[in-house]
Amino acid sequence: MIDPRSVMKKDRLAGLLAGKYFILCAVLGIAAFLRFYGLNGKCLWYDEVCSLNLSAYNWYDIFLSQKVLTDIPRPVYYALLKLWTGLFGYTEVAARSLAVIFGVLSVFLIYKLAKTLFGASAGLISAFILAISPYNIYYSQQVRYYTLFLCLSLVSIILFLKVIKSDKRSLRFLYILTNALILYSFPVGIYVFILQNIFFLVFSKRIRLKRQWLRMQVIILVIFMPMAVLPAVAFTQNTRNQEIDTFIADKPGYRDLIGTFGVFSYGGPRQAHAGVGFETEPSRLRVIRFLTVLLGLLFSLSIFYSRKEIRSNEDILSAKNKILLLWLWLLAPLLGFYLFSIWVKPVFLTRYFIAIAPAFYIGAAYSVSRMGRGRLPAIVALVALTFFSWDILYNPGSNDDWRSLASSVKPQIAEGDVLVFAPITQIIPFWYYYKYGQVKGFNNNIDNHGEKFYHMKNCRFLDGANTVIGLGIRQDREHVLVTLGGLPDNDANIWLIISPHWRGNEHSGLIEGLLGKGRGVKYRKYFDYNGVEAICYSPSG
C-alpha cells in the first residue's frame, strides 16, 4: 500500500526542485563557480595592476587629486577596491574576488529585470545566459570596474521602469543615487543615462511625470559636473591621457560593429588585454561562432513573439514597448560609439559595452521562454555551444605573460645590472610580479602610468644596486639617444623590456641597436600574451 505522506513529501520535493527560487539559486551557484574557477589562471594585465596601484593612493588622491581626475575618474570603484584590498590583500585571487561578487550579483539583477519585463521564466533564462556568458565571466575575473558598472546599470534600468510609472519620492531618490554612482564609477557609462532619456522622449506622451523626470535629470547632471570638467579638458587637449587612448583604440570598421555580437556571445576572437590582445587561433572559433548566430536569431525573434502577446492595453510597458526598449538598449549605444569613433575619437572598445549585452541576452531569453516544446532544445544548444567557448576563456592559448616573464628573468638579474623599459609604463605590471604583490609606491619612483617619468628626459632611478631606465610612450629619436647615451660601460648586463606593438614606440630598432653596441644577446624571448619582449645584452656575448 502506498503511503500518502511519502507521496506528498515527494511532490513537495519535486515542487521545490522545480521552483523558481531553487532554480535561481542553482543558476547563481553556477555563476559563482564559473567566475571563481581559474581566477588566478591568467596574470594581472596592465590595467589591473594600475587599478591596484590607484587603490593604494590615499583617500584625497582617489577622490580629489587632479592626476586621478584627468584620467577617466572612477573614484567609487577605487574606493571600494581600497577597502577590499585593505581587508584581503593584493594577491590576484583576493583583488579579483571583488569583481566576481559584482558579476554574480549581476546575474541576480538581470533575473529581476527580465522578470519585471517578461515574467519569471524569461528572468531565469536571462540569468542563466548571463551566468554562463564567457564575455561576462572574463570581466568578472579582472581587477576592474566593469562588473560594478554592470550591476549599477541593471539597478538603474529596474528603477527607471518603476519611476516612469510611480510618483514615489523614494524611488526617484534611489534612481538619482544609482545614476550618480554609475557616472562616478565609469563616466563613459553616461550612455545608460542617455538611453533612458531617449526612451522617455519616444513615449513622453504616455508618461505623466514629465516635470519630476526633468528635475531628476538636472540633479544628476549637476552632481556629475565636477567629475566631467577635468576629464573633458584633458580629452580635448593634447595631454598624456589622450596619447595613451590613441593606441588603445583604433578607428572601427563595420566588421568591428558586427563583431560586437560575437563578443557578447562567445567573448570574441581576442580574449587577452580586455579584447585587444593576441588573436585566437581561427580553428578554435569555427564551432562557437554558431553561438552568435543562435543568439542573434533568438533576439530577432523577440519582435515576432511580442506581436503574439495579448494586448489588454497599450500602456508604456506593453510587450511591444518592452521589446522596443531592448532594441534601443542594444543598438543606440553601439551606433553612438561607432559613429563617435569614426567622426571624433576612437573609443570603440568592447569592454565598454558590458552594460549593453544584457539587452541581447534578455531578448534571446524572452524568445526561448515563448517557445513551448522548443525551449529545452534551445537551452541545450546554447549550453553546448558555450561549452566550447569556455575552453578559449580558461585556456587562451598562451602562458607567456608578465608572471612567466618575471619568473624567467628575475633569477638571472644580478647586482649592478641595468633594466631598460620601453615604454616606462611597462614597469607597472612587471614590478608586481618582479616583487610579487608590491603595488604601492614603487619605491616612490613610479606611480600610475609611470607618470613621474612621463616625458622627462632623465628617466632613471636606483632599485638597490640595479639601475632602472625608462622611455616614454612617445619619444623622439634625440630623446632616445640622450636617455640611453650614458649607459654604464662595465660588465653589467642590460635587460630590455620592450613592447614593439605599442604605437608611438617606433624606435624599437634604434633602442636595440644602442643597447646591443659592443654586446651580445644572452637571452631573448617574446611573451605573446602581453605582447612584450625581454632581451638581455651581455658584454661577454
Number of helices: 24
> For the CA atoms, what is the radius of gyration?
26 Å
- Looking at the chains present, what oligomeric state does this protein adopt? single chain
- Beta-strand portion reads 5-15%
| Shape field | globular
User: What is the total number of structural domains?
Assistant: 2
Cα-to-Cα separation, first versus last residue: 91 Å
- Mean pLDDT, as a whole number? 82
Helix/strand-derived category reads alpha/beta
Helix and strand arrangement:
Layout: H1 4-18, H2 20-36, H3 46-55, H4 59-64, H5 66-69, H6 75-88, H7 92-118, H8 120-132, H9 134-140, H10 146-163, H11 169-185, H12 190-202, H13 210-236, H14 240-248, H15 254-266, H16 289-307, H17 319-343, H18 357-369, H19 375-394, H20 402-409, E1 418-422, H21 427-434, H22 442-445, E2 460-463, E3 466-470, H23 477-484, E4 494-498, H24 508-516, E5 520-527, E6 532-538
Parallel strand pairs: 1-3, 1-4
Antiparallel strand pairs: 2-3, 4-6, 5-6
Helix pairs in contact: 2-7, 2-8, 3-6, 7-8, 7-9, 7-10, 8-18, 10-11, 11-13, 12-17, 15-16, 16-17, 16-18, 16-19, 17-18, 20-21, 23-24
